[in-house]
């Protein structure tokens, strides 16, 4: 397969030339003001996103700290990250100081920071090895798209199959072309997105400018794809904040693993719930009162609310 036919769903348009061919882009020098070349760097000793007293960081919803305090950290759940682990390293800061990592490492780190008790498994998306589902609840995060037919890629066929069969929750980044999910970009369709539309345990994730509250409502980021007119997309579309000014990162690639982490946290409370039940719980408890001019064509079900999703004693 050719790398130009795959694209991690980040990196804003002006950064494409700095990334691997075909990247849509998430981490950006235009945001962080830092270069995108060179070997991975060690963490710096300070951060513009210091750790909060409850252990969370500035980019996280307060709901995460509340979940941790209740003992729900994703224990017993596996998050499988299929992504780019060999491409150009890029700078960012999730609160542990400036780091230079590849796209997939950032995505995996976000999921693991949201759900620190989860088991994280990394799969390079340029390899065709299968994703091995573990015992217990599995989440698969795909923060990339593909322009080739699914029939040519067994792993992506398996990811789509898991979402349709309900054997794993699949969190898929919505992409960054400011258009409706499922519509073509410069004539090409993201075949991974197309395959997931309508799947019962798939969730498309868009990016908000920040984590919303009723007092400080959030807008969809201008670059983020939106739910659009298809009810099957609207019903499986969530949004979360990506605090780009603080962390030097932007893009729906970094929204999707937050929801993957939320799913893992739910799985550590509702230990007998199926992937479809966890998916529905996230979708059914999304907030709309935290969003500017909410409508389902823009925001789908709304902003993911971990506290609301965790509130019941059990789910069915």
Automatic annotation (TrEMBL):
Pfam families: Peptidase_S8. Keywords: Hydrolase, Protease, Serine protease, Signal. SUPFAM superfamilies: Subtilisin-like (SSF52743). Residues 126-300 form the Peptidase S8/S53 domain. GO terms for molecular function: serine-type endopeptidase activity. PROSITE patterns: SUBTILASE_SER (PS00138). InterPro entries: Peptidase_S8/S53_dom, Peptidase_S8/S53_dom_sf, Peptidase_S8_Ser-AS. This is Peptidase S8/S53 domain-containing protein. It comes from Sinorhizobium medicae (strain WSM419).
